[in-house]
Design goal:
The chain is α+β, with helices and mostly antiparallel strands. The chain contains 3 helices and 15 strands. It has 3 domains: 41 residues, no CATH class; 119 residues, no CATH class; 56 residues. A 5-stranded antiparallel sheet has the order 6-7-8-9-10. A 3-stranded antiparallel sheet has the order 3-4-5, with no helix packed on it. It has a 3-stranded antiparallel sheet with strand order 11-14-15, with helices on one face. Helix 1 runs antiparallel to helix 2. The longest helix has 26 residues.
Length: 223
């Protein structure tokens, strides 16, 4: 394990003698800056080997464009969602059109009943398409983090201006995701810099999130 810690301001090595763990403060004697020690250590609970990316992860280090991490993993099990989505779609069509045509009149109650089925169709189709065709692309440079989630031909892009002071952590939101008889929380990768945050990765496997988070932390800190 690498126990060398680098200043977020100038990149100099900070010895353990200049670290106060109890108060979470590290002092760089080279530039005189203090910073949270928690921002210098690896992501909590992780033992990430950056030389061996998890399945589905591809990393490219370009000296001009920075580091680009692409995550794409085909999940055949997601094919089961399409019959479910088709069932929801059939119920939606019947409630919106079939009953109206059969009775030759407009029924507002039936129309309202169709809304949950329509929402279920959209949700299930989106999840299935992402796991079959979707991808994440994270680009890290010294001054910017760019996260792109793409489900062809649609994409979602977020950017965050970053520097050495950026804090990278696993963030557990208050939103709970239903999972049969139980409900679970899905943690996110959170990057914070200069009062702004960028959260992403809820749908990724845990090992992929830890790998990406640690890569971002080391790249931005220069360690």
């Amino acid at each position: 394990m690498d126990n060398t810690y680098h200043c977020q301001n100038c990149g100099a090595v900070i010895p353990l003698e200049d670290v106060n763990v109890s108060s979470d403060i590290a002092l760089c004697r080279t530039c005189g800056k203090t910073m949270p020690f928690s921002g210098l250590v690896p992501i909590s609970g992780s033992s990430v080997d950056l030389q061996h990316p998890p399945a589905g992860v591809c990393i490219v280090d370009d000296p001009f464009k920075g580091i680009t991490i692409t995550y794409r993993k085909f999940s055949p099990s997601m094919l089961l969602l399409f019959p479910m989505a088709a069932g929801f779609l059939g119920a939606t069509i019947f409630l919106l059109f079939g009953f109206h045509i059969y009775k030759y009149k407009f029924d507002i109650e039936r129309t309202i009943m169709a809304i949950p089925f329509l929402a279920g169709t959209v949700f299930l189709s989106t999840v299935a398409l992402f796991h079959l065709l979707g991808s994440w692309r994270i680009t890290i440079t010294r001054d910017q983090l760019t996260v792109v989630m793409k489900v062809s031909p649609l994409s979602w892009t977020r950017r965050l201006a970053c520097d050495r002071s950026a804090q990278v952590r696993m963030f557990l939101p208050s939103i709970r995701v239903s999972g049969g008889m139980n409900s679970t929380t899905q943690d996110l990768v959170q990057v914070e810099c200069q009062g702004k945050t960028l959260d992403f990765g809820g749908a990724m496997p845990e090992d992929v999130k830890l790998y990406i988070a640690e890569t971002i932390r080391r790249t931005l800190s220069g360690s």
